[in-house]
Amino acid sequence: MAFPVPKPTMDTSDPMPTTNTFVRTSHCNDLIDDTCKGTPKPVLCVSVLRADPRSEGGDVNDFAFIMVGEVEVKASDAMQQIGRLSKTKPVSDCRENYVVVVRDDIPQAEDAAKGGDAGKATQLMNDVVGKADSCERGFHGRSLLTKWNNAVKDFASVAAALSSKI
What we know:
The protein is mainly alpha-helical. It has a domain at 60-163: Butyryl-CoA Dehydrogenase, subunit A, domain 3, CATH 1.20.140. Helices cover 67% and strands 0% of the residues. It has 6 helices and no strands. It has helices spanning 26-37, 42-51, 60-84, 89-115, 118-137, 146-163.
């Protein structure tokens, strides 16, 4: 399994991906479709994997690695938004959660996905879902981060499902 260096380049101004597909082999499309069917967000999964050239000829490990990278993009977007908000307690709590996500959880999940450690990669992505959910709950229904938290939760839940298939 080879992992080229470039990260996916999706539009980060919108927390949900845009489709940027290119021609692939039938086998690759079938594997992506079949693999994504078992995720909580199959349309998101297919869209992201088909848009990323690293998925061509890839396997489930590659797909999990790609999706973890997308979680990093979304978590970084959330961090940027957090930086624009006033320093209230909920915002500070979210910042702490997302610092851990970006600094610790994502790099460890990438290593676990590369190394074929399904349990660790899955647990780390589930932890990310929990941290984004905790951030959202901290605002008690008045969150200014809902769209970013939801994007992180959506991508991380797909990454967890893909990681569990390694």
